[in-house]
Amino acid sequence: MPASFDRRRFLQTSGAAALAVGVLPRAAIAADPLTIGIVYVGARDDFGWNQAHAVGVKALRELPNVKVVEEENVPETDAVSKTMESMINLDGAKLILPTSFGYWSPFVLDEAKANPDVQFRHAAPLWKEGDPKNSGSYFAFLDQAHYVDGVAAGLASKSGKLGFVAAKPIGIVLRNINSFLAGARTTNPNATVQVIFTGDWSLPVREAEATNALVDAGCDLITCHVDGPKVVIQTAESRGVKSCGHNADQSPLAPKGFVTGAEYKWGTIYTGFAGLIAKGQPLPNITFGGYDRDMVQNSPYGAGATEPARKAADAAIAKLRTGAPIFTTAIKDNNGKIVLANAPKDNYAEPLNNMDYLVEGVIGSTH
Amino acid sequence: MTAQLAIVLTAMLGGAIRVSTPFIFVALGETLTEKSGRINLGLEGTLVLGAMLGYATAYLTGSPWLGVLAGGGAGVLLGTLHGLLCSLPRVNDIAVGIAMMTLGTGLAFFFGKPFIQPEAPHLPSIPLADWTGDPALAVALRVNPLFFVGVAAALVMAWGFRNTRIGLVVRTTGDSAAAALAMGVSVNRVRTLATATGGFLAGIGGAFLSLYYPGSWNEGLSSGQGLMAVALVIFARWSPIRCVLAALLFGAAGAIGPALQSVGVTQGYYLFNAAPYILTLLVMVGSSGSKDALRAAPGELSITR
């Protein structure tokens, strides 16, 4: 890495020089808004993870005296360090929100150590005791919204055979699948969920193949957990089956078959952070929640959601808001092994955090 | 058991037809270029740029077929650039190809931003098996016209290489530049034209990706299909007909992973998802011993020379 010309340093010093000779107007220095920097790994309008964050940022922009700087398509390499430094040094950001999993170590950790007066909050449950105090994690339990998807799917599907296109068999994905089934079983005790793992986060051709394969196998409602659900939802619509979304609102993609979808509501967390900083209060190191803390939501019902499905989903949402648990009995995996002898005490109980199994009723395998 | 086998076979048939088309176009384009004596590794970039421009054009004009033309046009531009650069003395075609790959994907990502969200009109398909009343078979045999265009292009190319003067000129240029010069042929012009035409075909392959299957534009759309298609050319030993067969085989193998999971064979899907690559390796190892493999390679290619 040649340590040649530093654009940031240059702009900084030239900016300071400009100030010294009084070139900048007074107003540019007089106002003191809170500047928040957001870093995305992909495009802001990808119908997926990045769009969900961008929707949250929109809520942030509506706050008075908050300035937002954004950068898209920042790879999980030292490129993200440069982006964060530029936001801190050039734009004067006091809170940085890097939204991709791989930004955390070492990039966010290093920047947090180097900039102790800047707050860093990262969108994955990775912060632990011993990490810099000005860094932290925030995350929302999307499985609660997938559970609501399942409740509606159990009634919207005629066959009770539901399909799930998933990227990789890791904890958060398995948890969404299991909660989807748990929801479906509340409205159709015979519902099954058939899973196809594609092997990676963004493989459009294989996602389309997987959707076709599930429909061919008799599934009449498809949902997914991949980076950009657009292909899955469109393919399901073109095959004439119903669909549930993931991450952001996909209802415009499936005017005939869309039921509802699991969405993040990052706006709650983001405006919460801004409010704490405005009041001069410290930010928590770990922030998490689900329906009970208004951090997830479901997409507006589409034409695929039947009247009973809407009613049942509304009721499920009302219960989740009060903190009602998703898993109410012992948990058995789909090999017949009992993995949890007692129902977990709530939706954030420790044993749920490391799911490495698919529950009974899911057709699929974790390896 | 037989029912499950039927599902998997139907899925493989459908997958072969759906997935193979971009491979057919890119592989045919590369065959033409390599037959003239150059390698264009940049077709991955052409595929991505063709997909983006095809989608953008279809969205802005409302006509998917104009999108297909725009995708081909993007390929002609990138191909011509590659051809002209490689006509300069001591320029390595492989290095230029890698540069073109980066250029094509970079341009596509840069200009493609506003087109990730909108929905462009799709290319139509021809229902070949709706009369059977079997829904799975009907869907598997809903075939895009571009598939037939690709197959026809392969037949025309195979016939043209053998029976026309143009075919002879391209082959001579590819096998021996000295012989082509003696015939009074401008070697660089033939190769540039061959690369531009090859780019046209690859660009159409890209438009198929964004306008038919999977049918939307995003940055992960190709995920290396252009590179695999270039490898398929060696696999097909520079024969247009075998390019089509190789692409069909590759598409069918790619459908195995999802299809097996859909009938309940859920273990080991990482292995099944790798089936196309394993199959390609096996066939290549199996066929590399034969003398035909060497005889088919154009003599002027920088890898064989």
From TrEMBL, chain A:
Tree of life domain: Bacteria
Isomerase as UniProt keyword: no
One Gene Ontology cellular component annotation held by this UniProt entry: plasma membrane
CDD domains on file: PBP1_BMP-like
PROSITE patterns: TAT
Keywords, sorted A to Z: Signal
Keyword Signal (UniProt): yes
ABC transporter substrate-binding protein PnrA-like domain segment(s): 35-282
Pfam families per record: Bmp
Signal sequence annotation: 1-30
Protein's UniProt name: BMP family ABC transporter substrate-binding protein
Organism this protein belongs to: Lichenibacterium ramalinae
Lineage, uppermost ranks: Bacteria, Pseudomonadati, Pseudomonadota, Alphaproteobacteria, Hyphomicrobiales
Automatic annotation (TrEMBL), chain B:
Entry's transmembrane regions: 6-29, 41-60, 66-87, 94-116, 136-161, 193-214, 243-261, 267-285
Subcellular location: Cell membrane
InterPro entries: ABC_transp_permease (IPR001851)
A GO term from the CC aspect: plasma membrane
GO terms, molecular function: transmembrane transporter activity
Main location: membrane
Keyword line: Cell membrane, Membrane, Transmembrane, Transmembrane helix
Topological category with respect to the lipid bilayer: Multi-pass membrane protein
Any one Pfam family match given in the protein's UniProt record, by short name: BPD_transp_2
Name of the featured protein: ABC transporter permease
Taxonomic source organism: Lichenibacterium ramalinae
